[in-house]
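Dear H.,

Thanks for agreeing to be a second pair of eyes. The structure we're designing against is below in token form, covering all 349 positions.
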């Protein structure tokens, strides 16, 4: 039997340890020691929890579900859904008029728990409408949202229930390309001539969007394109210091399933994007001696290829994890071909 209750003082350390176990790698670095939380227990053993915070904003208090976690051995039992519901009830009882949480884009297990508890995925523009500009900025900078590329914001507004808005792909694609172009301005002093660099960069992004769409057409599912709202500050900083790190935008299915057929559909869409980057990088590499634009295209394309063969956060949202979860042998082949081309482009072979 699952018991859901407030976290006791002597349960902070074991709950924190379990949370960091549930979020492997870089993600666990964003988990700080909690002051308040709710835990789930089975036979008096903590198997999950949610850490909560209250953030003061102009119109009252914002309740933030900081970290929702479930022991990997106990996932799939609805524990996460119960924790989100219990934490939401607690924060509402504390007088919070708006509740929020951030979730990784393809983490259906987590964001479905939020949707079932009355939350809706929102843009920063929508967040500013409900929280006020100061509230949106606090949500963005007090939480890890400013640094978490691939994360999305969810809100639950007590006084004005949010309706799920239909997402139209074309405006999202335009926003995705435009935002990445603006953030790339931070790299102006690192890449000359900038106009050529920006054109090639946007061409690569647009090509990925197009081939992702072609991949989605190969499946018998409905898809839409969506720009993620998280990580813009980190993206701008990395570009400013000379790196190349785009905001996440991807094709997402309208309905998620926990089936092999669904994982195949996700993998094929990501694989089609990778095929574009492999082909254009190889072609540009073969023509690199003819014009500087081809050398630049090969160089940037090799970075896009690298990101697509790292199947762990914060790079998994570029598509590599989708292929890995679908077919590990295909992923290994993809990784091998990518690494070979990356080494040739960089003169290491």
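And this is the sequence the design step returned. I haven't edited it by hand at all.
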């Amino acid at each position: 039997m699952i018991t859901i209750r407030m976290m006791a003082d002597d349960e902070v350390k074991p709950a924190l340890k379990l949370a960091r176990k549930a979020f492997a790698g870089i993600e666990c670095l964003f988990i700080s020691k909690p002051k308040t939380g709710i835990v789930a227990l089975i036979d008096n053993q903590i198997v999950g929890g949610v850490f909560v915070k209250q953030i003061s904003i102009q119109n009252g208090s914002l309740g933030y579900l900081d970290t929702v976690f479930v022991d990997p051995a106990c996932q799939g039992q609805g524990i996460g859904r119960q924790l989100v519901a219990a934490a939401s009830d607690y924060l509402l009882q504390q007088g919070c008029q708006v509740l929020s949480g951030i979730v990784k884009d393809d983490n259906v297990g987590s964001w479905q728990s939020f949707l079932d508890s009355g939350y809706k995925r929102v843009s920063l523009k929508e967040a500013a409408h409900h929280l006020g500009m100061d509230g949106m900025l606090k949500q963005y900078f007090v939480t890890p949202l400013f640094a978490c590329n691939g994360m999305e914001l969810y809100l639950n507004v007590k006084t004005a229930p949010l309706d799920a808005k239909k997402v139209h792909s074309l405006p999202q694609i335009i926003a995705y390309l435009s935002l990445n172009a603006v953030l790339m301005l931070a790299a102006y002093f690192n890449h000359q001539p900038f106009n050529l660099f920006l054109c090639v960069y946007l061409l690569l992004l647009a090509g990925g969007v197009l081939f992702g769409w072609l991949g989605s057409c190969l499946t018998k599912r409905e898809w839409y394109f969506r720009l993620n709202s998280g990580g813009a500050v980190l993206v701008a900083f990395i570009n400013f210091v000379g790196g190349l790190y785009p905001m996440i935008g991807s094709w997402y299915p309208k309905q998620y399933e926990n089936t092999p057929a669904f994982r195949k559909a996700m993998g094929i869409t990501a694989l089609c994007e990778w095929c574009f980057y492999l082909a254009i990088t190889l072609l540009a590499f073969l023509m690199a001696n003819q014009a500087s634009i081809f050398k630049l295209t090969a160089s940037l394309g090799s970075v896009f290829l690298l990101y697509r063969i790292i199947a762990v956060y914060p790079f998994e949202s570029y598509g590599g994890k989708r292929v890995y979860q679908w077919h590990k042998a295909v992923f290994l082949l993809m990784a091998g071909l990518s690494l070979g081309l990356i080494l040739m482009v960089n003169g290491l072979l």
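Two observations from my side: The chain has two domains: 2-157, 169-345. The CA atoms of residues 98 and 157 lie 5 Å apart.

Warmly,
E.
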